[in-house]
Amino acid sequence: MIAPNQLSDPTVRAFVAAVNAGDPNAFRAVLTEGATMSDDGSDRDVAQWAEKEIFASDGHMDIETESDGGRALVVNYRNDTWGEMRTKWRFTVTGDGRISRFETGQA
Question: Model's pTM, two decimal places?
């Protein structure tokens, strides 16, 4: 496992820290206005998805591997709704260090 504070990309590191801390304000701060996301190939509303899949269900990311300069992760993700699952995450980071899109799904 990779400790979140050891992730290569500082923006992705902030995203993971916000998820693991259950901090919706820090989560929103790392995203651009109008950020988009998909889950298992289907686009979702970021705010609704995050509330359900992360914050209301105690979501947590344990990082297995990173690639693409730290912008692609394989994660053991767990929450109170679905339990634990191996997932992949890919992040699009803007020049000002915020996430404009992330994609997740089963690995």
Answer: 0.96
